[in-house]
Amino acid sequence: MGYYFSVFLRRLPYFLIVATMIAAMAVVVAVSLPAAYVSEVRLVLEKPQIPTDLATSTVTTPTLETMQLLEQRLLTRANMLDIARRLDVLSDIDTLNPDEIVSAMRSRTTIRTLTGASAASIMTLSFEARSGQKSAAVLNEYLTLILQDNVEFRVGRAGQTQEFFQQEVDRLSGELDTRSKEIITFKTANADALPESLGFRLSRQSSLEERLSQNDREVASLRDQRDRMVQIFESTGRVEGVTGAAPTAEERELERLRQELSNALLVYSAENPRIKVLKARVSQMESALTAGAQASGDDAGPMSVLDVQLAQIDTRIEILQEQRALADTELQAVTDSIARTPANGIALEGLERGYNNIQNQYNQAIERLSRANTGERIELLSRGQRISVLEQPTVPNRPTRPNRILIAGGGGLIGIMAGLALVVLMEVLNTTARRPVDLVNKLGISPITTIPYIRTKGEVMRRRLLKLALVMVILIGVPATIYAVHAFYQPLDVLAERVMNKLGMRW
């Protein structure tokens, strides 16, 4: 044990150099570090004030994402530079470049968030500055930026949503108008061959076909009647069935045409081609009956009566043939329209299907636009998710850090441990023989006796004076050097703060 103690005494100057320098630096740092004042503000992210089952906002950002967005938008380069320069937050701001200012501001800012499924979402911001007033002022700026940015973000996003759906409604409304015009144009161009009138046209086709058949039968009957009258006159010289109480075929036909015209007027307008045809037929029949009545008034004998009756029959046949031609023309037009109806139906169905699809999109867009308008109104009135202040930033009365005693004591302890480590390292690396046991271990011999080096009194005195001078240089020179830096170059607190600003770190 005495050997190791003697070794420590021999290495004492080295121990003192390391321990004293580290301890002195720790004391200087503890004394020179500038006081740091930390102010704090607490915010809470409130849930929407209106129940979601009644009305919902269109801005539905998750809580954690909202917190992260607020933090990132707050710590932007532009915000940090603006606040630092406007409030003169850093003592040596004129000597720092923008990157160093941003790094220093961010290192002094601490943001903590607390979120949970069943817990309130709380954000705590703190800022460290060289004075309590500046710390509170910076936090007030932070608070203003957060509240303003949150409102602008939510209102802006709600407005963009409302604007988007308004544009969608306008676009779909224009498409509906275009499709409507296409359908109207198609129906106008194919008014005679549309699916909705197919049933009437099929019925009309059957009616016309039946009328043609009836017309052919009446013509054949009139021709047979004419031939019989001629045969009877040639055989007997008399004309039978000249008159009779019963109405003639022409009168019956005229009555039927008038009835058909009356029924058609209930369905079609006076300008309809069918109405015009029926009116023409009635006029022709009335003219024929009038001419026959005038001819029958002249009683010039059987031959004249026969001629009158034959003329009536010929007129009737001619009218029936004209009616047949008109009916046949109409039948061909109806048949052609029926043939074109399936293709028109497919085309019209495609147009209406496109119209209905756009109509459904338009209805959905109208509903979403209504929701977007409600969401924008909610955000404008701040009834949705919002940031509220739980605790306003206050000016701290005393410095928060540094803990000077802890820094100085910790530095002294580290210096002692470093000095001891240096002594141990030097002894481990020293391989010279200094004890008899070293001779035995290294040379393998056992000395009879060992004679240590005997110094004279002068040598001992000079050695002791040298060690004392070295210790005094260490104990006095290191503090004197530090004081000289503080007094003649730059105050240590300013120097320490400047170094930390450049490194972007805090203690």
Provide an overview of this structure.
The protein is of the alpha+beta class and 507 residues long. Helix content is 71%, strand content 6%. The chain is built from 14 helices and four strands. A four-stranded antiparallel beta sheet has the order 2-3-1-4. A hairpin with a 6-residue loop joins strand 2 and strand 3. Helix 2 crosses helix 14, helix 3 packs across helix 6 and helix 6 packs antiparallel against helix 10. The chain is rod-shaped. The protein starts with a helix and ends with a helix. About 1% of the residues have low confidence.
Order of helices and strands: HHEHHHEEHHHHHEHHHH
Level of helix content?
A: over 70%
Shape: rod-shaped
Strand content: 5-15%
Task: Count every helix, treating DSSP H or I runs of 4 or more residues as helices.
Answer: 14
Largest sheet features: 4 strands, antiparallel
Supply the helix-strand structural class.
alpha+beta
Poorly predicted segments: 241-246
Report the C-alpha radius of gyration, rounded. 59 Å
End-to-end gap: 42 Å
What is the average per-residue confidence, as pLDDT, rounded to a whole number?
Answer: 78
- Strand count: 4
Neighbour order of strands in the largest sheet: 2-3-1-4
